[in-house]
Sequence to fold (105 residues):
Amino acid sequence: MPKRAFDTLSEPMFYVLMALHTDALCGADIASWIARKTNNRITIGPGTLYTILPKLCDEDIIREISTDGRKRTYELTDKGRTLYRTEGTRLRQCVADIESTTPFT
Fold:
């Protein structure tokens, strides 16, 4: 069976949803939030971010709520909040699976 889009999220996509779960943000603020949250473990460049944002908008996972010149602000939709929770649950289960097997070294 072919994989459906957004059955699982890439790490950058998940962190975009995590950032927007906290507040409505513009692209630059999303990238800054992710860098701060991960102690710069993950840095999302403009090419990646501005590829992800339209895809998430097209799937009604996020929506643009304001535009000020080139600055666009986004928020999660109900579908996006559900997807964020579902992916968080899946990732927690992955960690639980690791912890329930031979110690991870």
Notes: The beta strands are 25-26, 62-68, 71-76. The mean pLDDT is 91.
